[in-house]
Amino acid sequence: MVRRLAEELAWCGIDVWLDEWELQAGESLHDVLAQAATKANFLGVIVGANFDDSPWANDELKIGLSREKAEKRHVVIPIVVGRQPLPAFLQGRVYIDLRRDRYIGIARLIGLLLKLPQQTVTDAILEYRPKRFSDLHGILRYCGLSPTIALNKEVVDSILQAGGRKTSEGCVEFFPEEIIIHPSASPHLRKLMSRLITVLHDEQASAA
């Protein structure tokens, strides 16, 4: 659940920190999580069935709430994914609800992370009524943004080796159909390109 959400955000251009993507062998999980929670612009707290029993989630929440007091701004973004009773800290706090209309919730989350005008995001949601991932790219375009993908350095280097090119803006341009058949493309990179091709086809079908 968490990995899927992180991937969907990354495929909408959000630079996401996820422990299983970032942790190296031998590193302290507690120390690395604390450092990431301290540096991130926002801290997404997944509120699921086991939230109250998770020391990691509660530690991250404490760091986030402490930062809110110190920085005098919203840092913690609660993301509700389960049917369990809501924890006490959510009382009086707006949260992202993924329990019913998942992609509407993700669209609102993207709007928060990118600091988009709330009314513009609401208008985009009413226009697209998002039901699948490709609809999120349509919402980004409605809000005046060109959809990009946030990838880690290893994947970017692999794409460049397989024929991608850097732009003057520091992005990487590529054609997934060419990358997927390149001899240097790893199985992981081919799987990533295959998923991207599926998303692009879905977008084209929606626009037709």
Automatic annotation (TrEMBL):
<feature type="domain" description="TIR">
    <location>
        <begin position="1"/>
        <end position="102"/>
    </location>
</feature>
<dbReference type="GO" id="GO:0007165">
    <property type="term" value="P:signal transduction"/>
</dbReference>
<dbReference type="Pfam" id="PF13676">
    <property type="entry name" value="TIR_2"/>
</dbReference>
<protein>
    <recommendedName>
        <fullName>TIR domain-containing protein</fullName>
    </recommendedName>
</protein>
<dbReference type="InterPro" id="IPR000157">
    <property type="entry name" value="TIR_dom"/>
</dbReference>
<dbReference type="InterPro" id="IPR035897">
    <property type="entry name" value="Toll_tir_struct_dom_sf"/>
</dbReference>
